[in-house]
Amino acid sequence: MGRKCRIEPVGAIYHVIQRGNNKKSIFENEEDKKFFMKLVKKYKEGLGYKIYGFVLMDNHYHFIIQTFHQPLHKIMHRWNSNYSKYYNYKHDGVGHVFQARYKSILVQDERYLLSLLRYIHNNPVRAGIVKNIADYKWSSDVYYRTYIQDGIVDIYLILSMLSLSVENSIKQYREYMAEIVSESKKEYENTMVLGKEAYSIMDRTEEKPNKRKSLEEILNETGAEQEKIILIKKGSKKRELTTYKLQYIKKAQELNYTLQEIGEVIGMNKSGIYNLIQRYKL
C-alpha cells in the first residue's frame, strides 16, 4: 500500500525533522554543516521559503520553515538530494544518507512557535554537547541573540512577538531561552500539529507569494522628492534625508529584507543600517 500524500498548504509553517539513514551521522565535521547551510541559503530565494529557526546535530537536523512558492516536499528534496551527492563524494559513501521520510509538523499559533524555537535550540544542551544554548555554534540562536541578518534566518517575526523595540526584543529573547523548562519530545516531535489556533501566524507574515514590494518601491513610497531619492541612493549623509531613510528601513525590515539588501539600495553597509536602527530605536 502506497504512502498517503502530504497536505502542504501554501503559507504554512512547519517543524521539519530529518534524520540520518539508520541513525548514522549526516554531518562528520564543520565543513559538512557549512555546506548544508549554503544549500539552505542558495535555494531560499528561488524556492520561496523563510527560515525561523534551525539546529544541526551530527545525525539529524531541525528546521522551522514557512513555504510560499513551492511545497515543502520539493524544498526537502532539493536540500537532501544535493547534500547527499556532496556527502557521498566527500566521504566515499554510497546509498542513502537520510531516512527516506522526513517528519513535518504543522505549527499553528505563536505560543508554540516561540516554545518550539526554544525546544530546537535546547537540542545540544539535552544531548550534553554544551551547557548553555548560546555555546552551540550550529543553530539559529546566534542570529536572534546578536541580531544577525545574512539572508538565512528570518528573525523579525519572532522578535516582533516579544517587542517592537530591537533592543528589548533581543533582551526578552535571551531571557526566554534561559528559562529552565521541562520540554517533552512527545509534545514537539510525536504529533501532527502544534497549537490550536488555525493558521493565526500566517496572517502575521507580511510576504505573500509574488506580492512583496521591492526595495525600490519602498524607497519611492517614503514621499521623498526624486532629487532626494537620487541623493539617498548615492549614499548621501545629509541630515535632511534621515527621515526618509528611517521610513525606508522600517518598512523594509517589516517585509523581512536583510540589512545587507536594505543597505545596497541606499549606499550603506550592514553596520551603518544597524547603527541607524539602534540610534533611532526602530
Can you offer a commentary on this structure?
- The chain is of the alpha+beta class.
- The chain folds into two domains: 191 residues, Transposase IS200-like (Alpha-Beta Plaits, 2-Layer Sandwich); 66 residues, no CATH class.
- 46% of the residues lie in helices and 11% in strands.
- The chain is built from 13 helices and five strands.
- A five-stranded mixed beta sheet has the order 2-3-1-4-5, with helices on both faces.
- Strand 2 and strand 3 form a beta hairpin.
- This is Transposase.
- It holds the Pfam family Y1_Tnp.
What is the gist of this entry?
It contains 13 helices and five strands.
What are its keywords?
single chain; 282 residues; alpha+beta; Alpha-Beta Plaits; 2 domains; five-stranded mixed sheet; 13 helices; 5 strands; 46% helix; globular; Transposase; Transposase_17_sf; Transposase_17
Would you spell out the secondary-structure blueprint of this structure?
Blueprint: E1 13-19, H1 30-47, E2 49-56, E3 60-67, H2 72-90, E4 103-107, H3 110-121, H4 123-126, H5 141-146, H6 156-162, H7 166-178, H8 185-189, E5 193-194, H9 215-220, H10 226-233, H11 242-254, H12 259-265, H13 270-280
Shape descriptor reads globular
In the CATH hierarchy, the third-tier topology of the largest domain is known as Alpha-Beta Plaits
Helix content: 40-55%
Instruction: State the name of the first-level CATH class of the largest domain.
Output: Alpha Beta
Specify the number of helices: 13
Oligomer: single chain
- Intertermini distance: 55 Å
Spans of at least 5 consecutive residues whose pLDDT stays below 50 are: 197-203, 205-210
CATH arch. level architecture of the largest domain = 2-Layer Sandwich
**If strands are numbered along the chain, what order do they take across the biggest sheet?**
2-3-1-4-5
> Averaged pLDDT, please?
85
* C-alpha-based Rg, rounded: 20 Å
Structural domain tally: 2
Structural class comes to: alpha+beta
Organism: Defluviitalea saccharophila
InterPro entries: Transposase_17, Transposase_17_sf
Protein name: Transposase
